[in-house]
């Protein structure tokens, strides 16, 4: 039924060539969909979009402190809805000079009778200022494990880069504590015995 | 374009009979017919869901359905209309018309054609099964909107989300195979002398649409695959707790989603570009600018996706880029509208039903285009985002745009398909009732949207009551006047109309498909026509 009469219509070979080429596009675009995940992360890292802060920063020499400028830093804490901890900053706001190293503490308490592992995800607003907020020490660099009823003071040491754009006067650092994925089974049974 | 054909088709018309004709069909016309009927069925199912939504929104407060069920209605209405109505209807029209328009005997890959159609009933069977289970009280159907944003669809998605994921995979495979087939047909099966720049505009628009589909459907497949592994295999692509990012879902989704909205309009542009010259009895104005405009729209569709996400907290530079890139799309679209109007200019026009739908398309699609321009202005979008203004915008481009284009195409080619002229009086009734009711339905949504009524919410403040009542009346009227269309199509297909169609059908019709007799023979061009 599909046999083509002897005419100028191209035969099966041309079709095979077209299909093969198009299948490469299909496979390539499927892979591209997944490649968007690392591309997205790299893009956010480079540009500091999305309020993503960098990892641990270590200075070979302390940056020069700019005594002429003051920046207000606000600290915010939140918990993912299934996280049964208490979590808040010990200090709500501080004022620093750019280049000055500052240490503050957050307090976390495990309210359950089970040990829970948590991950803190940091975010800085305004997002474009995120690359200038440099942490030399942070509880967000590692997983935090709290035993049943345990309370822990967790320090953050940071420096605001003196290169911070002039129009930024206030930075907000926010942490959200998530239960480590996979350890959820323990906690849900702890929550709903 | 003129053609010489030898009139010896009839004796090769050995049609298989019974259900096997449809189940094992490799014939482009039979498969096209199945696509179109499938789309028609889904149109009524999706329409019924829309009427549930409009019944609930007829007055403030909760009347008929629970908010949870309302969410399932908006989700499935969107999914069915996008993937089950507009896209299959276009593929059906391509199946029917592309081989006939380029002088080919059939599609290039007939067996794949069969497969790509028969995946669709499976895909939608699965999706609709989740709705049936929901009605029977066995757990929710997908309830996160057709855009299935994470974490609504990952962390908080109902169990039936996995049905949805599988269903989207099947639809994607079906569309990709359909597109490969259309590209292979257009590249390899054109009649001698038909160069690319002599192809009818409908063929051109489908050629470009097929490339868009091949480029973005795999990205959609990737997105739902990530959802699948997030839900079931412990990955954290979109889960912040595991280092993922839900906003990234929106980027991946709209990287697919924006080209997708052009996939749903470009073939309609093609249909309108066939109809307007026929009834204006002039050649299309600016053929090559039409082709280049279509290609530019397709290219731009890849670099504007984040205009759906202005309120996610993008930096100003990003917002400006996506705002200006989006505004640029108005240029090639404007070229098209200009060309259609110029084609009509000083033409000897008649107003048969396809032409009426085509003119309504040009007028109403342009309204939808203008509201799109309003939405692309970033600061204004912060006000309009997720309001009924957006709903009004995309229904103007999809219902009075894409769907009116399909209806125009069906009336235009139905005499060619069936050999019978449709009932012109019923066609005019269908047109006038539709065009009035669709405006009663969607125009008031602009007003409530600008006043701040959020979309996808089953209840609303009292000040929106009048316009919502109006929209609901329009919705039921529009829904029921589609039954005229159904009746007219059935009547024509069964040969109950008095007038037989000639080969050329329309006085002003040009192009290879009109050189075939009506109804078109089972195999289109067994001997290729010569195109001068």
Keyword list:
heterodimer; A: 193 residues; alpha+beta; 23% helix; disordered C terminus; B: mainly alpha
Tell me the Rg of chain B in angstroms.
23 Å
Report the principal-axis shape of chain B. Answer: globular
Low-confidence stretches of chain A: 1-9, 185-193
Could you say which structural class the secondary elements and strand pairing of chain B correspond to? Answer: mainly alpha
Low-confidence stretches of chain B: 1-11
CATH hierarchy class name of the largest domain in chain A: Mainly Beta
By CATH, the architecture of the largest domain in chain A is named Sandwich
* CATH superfamily membership of the largest domain in chain A: Ctag/Cox11
Could you report the average pLDDT of chain A, rounded to the nearest whole number? 81
Would you count the extended β strands of chain A for me?
Answer: 9
| Number of helical regions of chain A | 2
The helix fraction of chain B, in percent, is: 55-70%
Tell me roughly what share of residues is in helical segments of chain A: 10-25%
Number of domains of chain A: 2
Largest sheet of chain A: 5 strands, mixed
Summarize the helices and strands and which ones pair or pack:
The complex is a heterodimer of chains A (193) and B (532).
Chain A: H1 12-47, E1 71-79, E2 85-89, E3 93-96, E4 101-110, E5 116-125, E6 133-138, E7 144-146, E8 151-160, E9 170-179, H2 184-191
Parallel strand pairs in A: 1-9
Antiparallel strand pairs in A: 1-3, 2-4, 4-8, 5-7, 5-9, 6-8
Chain B: H1 18-23, H2 28-56, H3 67-102, H4 110-135, H5 161-188, H6 201-232, H7 246-263, H8 266-280, H9 287-300, H10 316-344, H11 353-376, H12 378-384, H13 388-418, H14 424-450, H15 465-493
């Amino acid at each position: 039924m599909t046999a083509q009469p002897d005419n100028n219509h191209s035969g099966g070979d041309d079709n095979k060539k077209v299909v093969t080429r198009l299948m490469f596009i299909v496979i390539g675009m499927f892979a591209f969909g997944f490649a968007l995940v690392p591309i997205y992360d790299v893009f956010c890292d480079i540009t500091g979009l999305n309020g993503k802060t960098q990892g641990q920063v270590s200075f070979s020499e302390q940056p020069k402190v700019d005594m002429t400028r003051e920046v207000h830093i606000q600290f915010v804490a939140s918990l993912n809805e299934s996280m049964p901890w208490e979590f808040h900053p010990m200090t709500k706001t501080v004022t620093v000079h750019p280049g000055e190293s500052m240490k503050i503490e957050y307090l976390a308490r495990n309210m359950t009778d089970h040990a829970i592992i948590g991950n803190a995800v940091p975010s800085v607003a305004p997002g474009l200022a995120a690359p200038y907020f440099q942490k030399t020490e942070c509880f967000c660099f590692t997983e935090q494990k709290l035993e049943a009823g345990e309370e822990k003071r967790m320090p953050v040491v940071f420096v605001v880069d003196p290169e911070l754009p002039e129009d930024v006067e206030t930075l907000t650092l926010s942490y959200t504590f998530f239960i480590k994925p996979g350890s959820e089974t323990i906690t849900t049974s702890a929550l709903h015995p | 374009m003129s053609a010489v054909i030898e009139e010896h088709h009839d004796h090769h018309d050995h049609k298989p009979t019974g259900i096997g004709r449809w189940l094992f069909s490799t014939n482009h016309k039979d498969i096209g017919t199945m696509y179109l009927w499938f789309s028609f069925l889904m149109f009524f199912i999706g329409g019924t869901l829309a009427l549930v939504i409009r019944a609930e929104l007829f007055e403030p407060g909760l009347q008929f359905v629970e908010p949870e069920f309302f969410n399932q209605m908006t989700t499935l209405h969107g999914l069915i209309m996008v993937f089950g109505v507009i896209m299959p209807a276009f593929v059906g029209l391509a199946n029917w018309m592309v081989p006939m328009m380029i002088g080919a005997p059939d599609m290039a890959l007939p067996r794949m054609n069969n497969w790509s159609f028969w995946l669709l009933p499976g895909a939608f069977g699965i999706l609709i099964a989740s709705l049936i289970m929901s009605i029977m009280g066995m757990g929710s159907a997908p309830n996160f909107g057709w855009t299935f944003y994470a974490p609504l669809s990952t962390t908080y998605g109902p169990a039936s989300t996995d049905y949805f994921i599988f269903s989207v995979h099947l639809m994607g495979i079906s569309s990709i195979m359909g597109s490969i087939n259309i590209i292979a047909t257009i590249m390899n099966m054109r009649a001698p002398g038909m160069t690319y720049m002599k192809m009818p505009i409908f063929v051109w628009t489908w050629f470009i649409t097929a490339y868009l589909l091949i480029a973005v459907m795999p990205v959609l497949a990737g997105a739902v695959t990530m959802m699948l592994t997030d839900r079931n295999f412990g990955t954290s692509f979109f889960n912040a707790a595991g280092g993922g990012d839900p906003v990234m879902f929106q980027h991946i989704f709209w990287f697919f989603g924006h080209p997708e909205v052009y996939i749903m309009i470009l073939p309609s542009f093609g249909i309108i570009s066939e109809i307007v010259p026929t009834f204006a009895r002039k050649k299309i104005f600016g053929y090559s600018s039409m082709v280049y405009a279509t290609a530019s729209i397709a290219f731009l569709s890849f670099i504007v996706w984040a205009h759906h996400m202005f309120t996610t907290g993008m930096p100003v530079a990003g917002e400006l880029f996506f705002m200006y890139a989006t505004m640029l799309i108005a240029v090639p679209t404007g070229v098209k509208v200009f060309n259609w109007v110029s084609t009509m200019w000083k033409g000897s026009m008649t107003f048969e039903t396809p032409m009426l739908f085509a003119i309504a398309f040009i007028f109403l699609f342009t309204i939808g285009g203008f509201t799109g321009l309003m939405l692309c202005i970033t600061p204004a979008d912060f006000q309009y985002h997720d309001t009924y203004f957006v709903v009004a915008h995309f229904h103007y481009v999809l219902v009075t745009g894409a769907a009116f284009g399909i209806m125009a195409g069906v009336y235009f080619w139905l005499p060619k398909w069936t050999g019978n002229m449709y009932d012109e009086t019923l066609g005019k009734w269908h047109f006038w009732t539709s065009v009035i009711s669709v405006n009663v339905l969607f125009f008031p949504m602009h007003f409530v949207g600008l006043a701040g009524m959020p979309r996808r919410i089953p209840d609303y403040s009292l000040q929106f009551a009048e316009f919502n009542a109006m929209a609901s009346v329009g919705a039921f009227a529009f829904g029921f006047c589609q039954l005229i269309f159904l009746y007219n199509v059935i009547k024509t297909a069964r040969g109950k109309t008095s007038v037989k169609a000639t080969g050329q059908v329309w006085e002003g019709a040009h192009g290879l498909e009109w050189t075939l007799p009506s109804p078109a023979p089972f195999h289109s061009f067994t001997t290729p026509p010569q195109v001068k």
